[in-house]
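[Q] Does anyone have a clean structure-token version of this?
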Amino acid sequence: MSYLGVNNTLLFPLLPILASLAAPAADWTQFRGPNGSGISDARRLPVEFGPGQNVTWQIDLPPGHSSPVFAGDHIFLTAVEGETLASAGRDKVADTGNGKLLTLCLDRRTGRLLWRRESPRPRRERFQPTGSAASPSPVTDGRNVYVFFGDFGLLSYGPDGNERWRVPLGPFNNVNGHGTSPILYKNLLILLCDQDSDSYLLAVDRDTGRTRWRVDRSEITRGYATPVVFQPRNGPAELIVSGALQLDSYAVETGEKLWWVRGMSWQPKSLPVIQEDIIYVHSWEGGGEAETPTETPSFQETLVTLDKNADSLISEQELPDERQRRGFYLLDLNSNGTVDEREWNFYRARRAARNTLVAIRHGGKGDRTNTNVLWRMQKFLPNVPSPLFYQGVLYIIKDGGILTSLDPQTGAILKQGRLAGALGTYYSSPVGVDGKIYLISQEGKAVVLQAGAQWEILAVNPLDDEVYATPVPLDDGLYVRTRSRLYRFAQAKPVLTSTEPR
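[A] Here you go.
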């Protein structure tokens, strides 16, 4: 099997044409662009596109769910080549073969592969079948690239592919695999490592990889959200972190915890979105749809009925029915075969948690749950995709293709409807550009909307492949990573096919 091949016969006659195109005007340096906002100032993007329409170039890729990032003439992304996936129990999968963790650098003008580097892979952690060992997106400082793999840790490469440093991390205790992407703030590379035990927040020097600070988050269990930076009008920058059951703010430079808001759901996946001094964040998990919390007995009350051997712990064999025993791993966070009071209290909190989209006004210290929450919404919420604040309207996309536009001041629904022709599951997050919204279902149906409170569907474009990555709108092109390819779509550009037989 050959990936990343370039058909030179087709490529070189087009090089003079491609060289005449305008130089790249902007970068897209992290997951979902500037501070995770999903907003671009690109223009003239195509409304209709697909494998046979408005393709500037395309290139075959090994699979991976990470979104590409852009710096100058370079595109950086990660992938996994040659995996052999098999059941790993608990409805998870793991690589039982010799899958390679790859960092790839492509030429932004042509899609041509410039270099590829393989990461060490000392372990094969399991993940859910819709996940990937290459889910976290890279981040770039405009020259160098920084990548994170849950099966190894952090690595940094220079623009020519030379390794600058590596920091092994883990192993991690996260049954679904890792989805959090690293971010940069000045000379700090920041990574959130939330898991079922020993969660932490890490900042390393971007030039050396040496730890600058590390903050314990053992009060938090698994999560997959990427942090964002909040810059107050007055005062130092803060790191806004969406975690299990609460949102936290930390001083970026030191890691000091500043304030927090309770009342979130369990294992969040989407990143917060910031508009002026308001933070919009959502979290969703199955079982959190009910309007009222689910009451669960205390640990001491539970021991009275379940602790048959009087060891002040709960084992799988002590659970009363088969259904509960099948879900024992959700209780046993450290996988030691028993549930203690800490783990039971997490279970109680998870059952009481409600899915929520919340607007939070920045400001203050300590617990701001009762003072800074402007509004909450509990219905029609996404599982994975992040919200989009664009041109004064807040958008969310729920599985089933249910799109909702909201008044960001009040949370009132402005319009809600199903995206006809794209009713599937959504992992990719929406982006806003040139008065339009682009969003893509897992099935690979790319929807283009006219942005606005009363949004309208302009086109639904089949991509003939699954999509997990978030699209990137830059210059006059739209970059879309499917399960097997990276496309650059643009209007009235030469078609360059850079593939080989596979």
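[Q] Thanks! Anything notable?
[A] The longest strand covers residues 74-81.
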